[in-house]
Amino acid sequence: MKIAAKDVNVPADVPKEMKAEYVKNYLRATRNTGRLMLFAGDQKIEHLNDDFTGKTKEGMKISEDDAAPEHFFRIASKGAIGVFAGQLGLIARYAQDYKNVAYLIKMNSKSPLVKTKQSDPVSESLVDFEDVLNLKANGVNVVGIGYTIYLGSEFENTMFSEAGRLATWAHQNGLVAIFWMYPRGKAVAEEKDPHLIAGAAGVALCLGADFAKVNFPEKGGMSLSERAESFKEAIKAAGRTKVITAGGSAKDPRAFLQETHDQIHASGAMGNATGRNIHQRPLDEAVRMCDAISAITLGDKDVEFAYKVYEGKEKFALR
């Protein structure tokens, strides 16, 4: 699946003189497919050190490789990914040594220490947009920005306001905007309800996102096929904003690849954002998982082929 520059839908808030830059960054992020394989590396703040040492909640041993932050960059430089997402400070420390990687600056993050029962979640910008442009001017291959919104939080308007401005600034400078859309707070009864997720995807559209990262719906013991069918509501609600799915906590590799396949090829999602299911593995295995995910997401391969890539029995590379 390949697209050309003429196939990219350029938002009207991208100035004429920046259209070529926007198209270049969009095609680089999606590896000329229109679909996004986003390697998520924002958990150093979001989950503190829980995701990087010991065992996962599911009992999987986390690779010792993952204790070193540079593990992110080694994976991103070797694996078949579209873009690596992380906070500006993290990327600034390592990007000069990994210039082949396309970067997405995660503008906001919060720790998990304050629980919803104590206070509704809020996450505001860590840096200014000018800081992103300075990093790009210093030779870092920044193709876009990301921002998390907790829909349903009593502080949602603060995050709406920041996200809307950031999307506009990104477009004015030829960058892509990706919003993490998570219904969360005391007002939210079921954050993975299909109808609510569809609403969140529609909000991302209204705020100017190019891609909306949402959770795959899950309600009342739905089967995988039922989840995939219910997810179509979010794809429609997002309109010309493309929907990608969050990878979530570590899963059995084959089950994860099957879920990824159905999200894209049954529901119509336009990509995935995967973190823990990649970086909690040793480097070689993590790279193979990247390649397996991209085989499905960017290469239109089936689960059988992708699993063989993960096992090291097949090869998949982006051209």
Give the tags:
eight-stranded parallel β-barrel; 8 strands; 12 helices; alpha/beta; 319 residues; globular; TIM Barrel
Instruction: Return residue spans where pLDDT drops below 50 for at least 5 consecutive residues.
Output: none
- Biggest sheet: strand arrangement: 1-2-3-4-5-6-7-8
* Strand runs, count: 8
Mean pLDDT: 96
Note the quaternary state here.
single chain
Number of domains: 1
From the spread of the alpha carbons, the general shape counts as globular
CA(first)-CA(last) distance: 12 Å
CATH T-level topology:
TIM Barrel
Query: What gyration radius follows from the Cα positions, in whole Å?
Result: 18 Å
* CATH architecture label: Alpha-Beta Barrel
User: How large is the share of residues in beta strands?
Assistant: 5-15%
Q: How is the topology of this model organized?
A:
Blueprint: H1 19-29, E1 36-40, H2 43-46, H3 70-78, E2 83-86, H4 88-94, E3 103-106, H5 129-137, E4 142-149, H6 156-172, E5 176-181, H7 194-207, E6 211-214, H8 224-237, E7 242-246, H9 253-265, E8 271-274, H10 276-279, H11 283-297, H12 303-311
Briefly summarize what is shown.
With 319 residues, the chain is of the alpha/beta class. The protein has helices spanning 19-29, 43-46, 70-78, 88-94, 129-137, 156-172, 194-207, 224-237, 253-265, 276-279, 283-297, 303-311; strands at 36-40, 83-86, 103-106, 142-149, 176-181, 211-214, 242-246, 271-274.
Explain this structure.
- It is globular and about 45 Å long.
- The mean pLDDT is 96.
- The protein contains 12 helices and 8 strands.
- Helix 9 links the parallel strand 7 and strand 8.
- Strands 1-2-3-4-5-6-7-8 form an 8-stranded parallel β-barrel, surrounded by 8 helices.
- The protein starts with 18 loop residues before the first helix and ends in an 8-residue tail after the last helix.
- Helices cover 39% and strands 13% of the residues.
- It has a single domain, classed as Aldolase class I (TIM Barrel).
- The chain is of the alpha/beta class and 319 residues long.
